[in-house]
Amino acid sequence: MSHKNVLLIMTDQVIADTLSCYGGNICQTPNLQKLAEASAIFSKAYTSVPLCTPARASIFTGKYPHKHGLLYNATYESYGRPELVDASSMITTPLKDAGYHCGYIGKWHIGEKLGPVDYGFEGTRFAGYGLPSDFVADYDDYLKEKGHPGQEFVKVKNFVSSRDIDSLNFPLGRNMPPDFNGSEQYAGVVDLPTELTPAGFVASRTVDMLNQFKDEPFFLTASFWGPHHPAMPNNTYAGTHSPEAIEEWANYNDELNGKPNIQSRYIKCLHRRFNEEGWPLWSKVIAAHFDFMTMIDSQIGLILDELDNLGLRENTLVIFTADHGDSLGCHGGLWDKGPYNYEEVMRVPMLVRVPGLENMSVHNAMVNNMDVYSTILDYCGAKCPDDVDSVSFLPVAERNAKSVRDFVMTQFYGFDVRGLCLQRSIISGNLKYVFNPADIDEFYDLDDDPDEMTNGIDDSSKAGEITMMKTKLSNEMKRVKDPYATFASQLMGL
Predict the structure, then answer these.
(1) Of 93, 214, 216, 319, which is most buried with the most CB atoms under 10 A?
(2) Which residues neighbour 247 within 8 Å (Cβ) at sequence distance 6 or greater?
């Protein structure tokens, strides 16, 4: 076979350092470990935005959010755009021009009305988040094809939310008790065999599409919903990880002194059960997330095995990454992601298996996960548009270059109906500067303070480095025409 293929495997928010290939020694992911042993491992890969919709839109358009237009999560009812500014900016446009079949299976969350098929992909039909524990027609059809009566007959047991619930049925959003509050869905055990779980659905449909595309050049995405909460392993994987074996994070007792107020406000006001019960509850929920990730890992293994069985390994670039990280109790008990720029939330795993170069290599090159866009086009020989912010890291993955970026800039505009919050950050080597125009800025030297316990923004001994980072960020905001660049340098005190 002479044509080149790409398989992109994505999970929905995962802390990179919990994976064994990134030094984690608890979460069991043997298939990702096996992939890593044949891959380039990027240790300094970051999300463009620590939030699903804008990050995913950046990955598939190669543009910062202020250019692709999706700034927040599913909030067009209150503010923001419901869809991309320009549908033709989707990666399918240059790939189809180059003769590629484009397939997409699983979580989308790029816009609310238009799904993958509306942007030129084959496969997933639904738009928005499409969480299977609520209702997704594609997943319901899949269950019925496999002889299951359908989503409304799926049970979740031992559900942990704002209070414990013995059992409830899908759709969770409709069946939660009246005192359920907001997004407080943490973990439970889904009463399904692995093949019928949402992770099994993604793997099965991806395997089907590999068989469908095997004789033609293809770009195929397998997008898993987990380990994003609610963590829902099944009986096969529940209990794989012991809560007692999970030690408190090194920064769990961070009192957040000298840090932006929104962080402590989120801890005190949202998800209060964690605040009240402390680490014993955290360790229980974290163990469930690890169980969930192990179940997903088993399904990633099925996809990779099928790639081998079909003889496609020798000409298929495999990329594994996530849209962003997670907090899971770091820094005093933060939950989820959002207006905090800590490593747990900002860093993402990035494994790249290049055909013909299947040996592990670890790279500290700075990478933005939206660089996946240009990397895929580069590998496939497709024309990359001139107006993208993405940079191909294929030369690094192929061991022909040490770096392609000097730094990574990230953006944040606000979460969803939880409110707006403007942030910009820049990470260069071991230094990180966070611009919080409505509050105190942040500065961390990750060599001196890897757990980011002390905000060094007022450290006079670091004044030169802080000014350098501010200048880099201000210049980059101007270069990419960030709409907030005009007054940023003045607000930074430059």
Answers:
(1) 319
(2) none
Q: Is 137 within 8 Å of 256 (Cβ atoms)?
A: no
Alpha carbons 273 and 209: distance in angstroms, whole number: 43
Spatial contact of 411 and 480, defined as CB atoms under 8 Å apart? no
- Backbone φ and ψ for 11, nearest 5 degrees, come out as -110, 165
Rg (the chain; Cα; Å) = 21
Q: Quick one: which of 221, 307, 393 has its CA closest to 31?
A: 307
Top-confidence range, 17-21, 173-177, 446-450: 446-450
Q: Which amino acid is at 273?
A: R
What does pTM read for this prediction? 0.97
Contact 130, 171 (CB under 8 A): no
Q: Which of 103, 114, 106 is CA-nearest to residue 81?
A: 114
- Residues present in the chain in total: 494
Helix, strand or coil for residue 361? strand
Helix and strand numbers (H, E) in the chain are 16, 15
Q: What is the per-residue pLDDT across 232-255, written as a single tens digit (0 to 9) for each?
A: 999 999 999 999 999 999 999 999
Structure tokens of 304? Answer: 């990779």
